């Protein structure tokens, strides 16, 4: 792996991958940057766009270091073997991680075309809910299983409680999607899949996908939905619960991960979140702060008056969203029941 050029310049502040990408695109010029952004997904565009917008007074040395690192990386690339399945799989897994790369690898190597579904990723959640509101719950489940969990959770928020339960149960029980189901979905979206699409079934859904979506629901909606699932299938509810990452699971994140996470969380949000947390979680947080910072935080918690439950839940959700983002980028590793076991 190429040595990070920024690490060789000790007087320069460290930059995360998003900031590096933003600097690189800004240095390419408007037209070239636009061409690169065309090949990214909506979330990547949003993250890099925000980073580009907040860039101010970037030092020339930083720009040079980012470009140098980029050149060092591409120097390691050759055209040999770039068309092979093995190369494509390794490249995507390295760039996106196992989970995200899996579906993309299936689409690319199996010859499938999901242009219609990919279009949904750019749409407003309300518009998606309106589009699929009157479709069969199985079709709704396939759509939501395909989208990213946070977007699916937002779409679910526009559904009635009864519909939410049905759809989440179907997502949890999904194992594969047959071609005729994709064809039905194709009709809904008024898009045409490739005429050469494979006849093999597509892995989609499952309890992990259901848990990921549940993680992003508002706490009140999540609790009601979980109780409804438990009424229908207690075993399934337990499996979904085990795979979810909730605020109390922060106690299972290693100390280095907690310290990294705290650097991204504002004091106000942290105070609100801890108002409704267990003592064990508080001790975990205090134990990963300086003595002075921990004392100040304790004082703030004691002097803060009553706060609304919705404010506490909102703050906890905000911290969890930051934790998931950092986990996706490889900055921290989430522990808890939903984490990968080590042997």
Explain the overall architecture.
This protein has 343 residues and is an all-alpha fold. It has 3 domains: 5-75, Annexin V, domain 1; 115-190 and 201-243, Annexin V, domain 1 (Orthogonal Bundle), CATH 1.10.220; 247-328, Annexin V, domain 1. 64% of the residues lie in helices and 1% in strands. It contains 20 helices and 2 strands. The chain has helices at 17-28, 30-37, 42-54, 60-75, 85-96, 98-110, 115-120, 125-132, 137-146, 149-156, 161-173, 179-189, 207-215, 219-232, 234-243, 255-262, 267-275, 279-286, 291-303, 309-328; strands spanning 176-177, 202-203. It has a two-stranded antiparallel sheet with strand order 1-2. The protein is globular, with a radius of gyration of 22 Å. Mean pLDDT is 74; it is low at 1-11, 79-83, 107-114, 191-201 and 336-343.
């Amino acid at each position: 792996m190429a040595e990070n050029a920024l690490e060789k310049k000790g007087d320069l502040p460290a930059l995360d991958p998003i900031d590096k990408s933003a600097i690189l695109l800004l240095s390419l010029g408007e037209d070239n940057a636009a061409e690169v952004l065309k090949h990214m997904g909506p979330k990547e565009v949003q993250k890099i766009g925000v980073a580009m917008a907040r860039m101010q007074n970037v030092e020339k040395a930083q720009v040079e270091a980012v470009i140098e690192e980029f050149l060092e990386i591409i120097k390691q690339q050759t055209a040999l073997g770039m068309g092979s399945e093995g190369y494509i799989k390794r490249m995507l897994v390295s760039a996106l991680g196992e989970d995200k790369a899996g579906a993309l690898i299936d689409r690319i190597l199996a010859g499938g075309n999901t242009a219609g579904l990919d279009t949904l990723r750019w749409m407003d959640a309300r518009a998606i809910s309106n589009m699929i509101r009157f479709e069969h719950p199985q079709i709704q489940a396939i759509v939501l299983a395909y989208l990213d969990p946070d977007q699916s959770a937002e779409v679910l928020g526009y559904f009635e409680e009864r519909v939410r339960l049905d759809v989440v149960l179907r997502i949890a029980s999904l194992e594969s999607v047959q071609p005729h189901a994709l064809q039905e979905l194709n009709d809904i979206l008024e898009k045409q899949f490739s005429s050469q699409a494979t006849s093999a079934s597509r892995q989609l859904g499952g309890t992990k996908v259901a848990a990921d979506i549940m993680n992003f629901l508002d706490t009140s909606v999540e609790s009601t939905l979980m109780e409804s699932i438990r009424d229908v299938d207690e075993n399934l509810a337990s499996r979904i619960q085990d795979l979810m990452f909730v605020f109390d699971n922060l106690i299972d994140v290693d100390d280095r991960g907690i310290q990294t996470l705290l650097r991204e969380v504002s004091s106000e949000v942290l105070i609100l979140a801890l108002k409704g947390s267990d003592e064990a979680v508080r001790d975990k947080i205090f134990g990963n702060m300086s003595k002075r910072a921990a004392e100040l935080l304790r004082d703030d918690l004691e002097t803060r008056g009553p706060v609304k439950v919705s404010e506490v839940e909102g703050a906890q959700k905000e911290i969890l969203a930051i934790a998931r983002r950092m986990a996706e980028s490889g900055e921290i590793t989430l522990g808890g029941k939903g984490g990968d076991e080590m042997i």
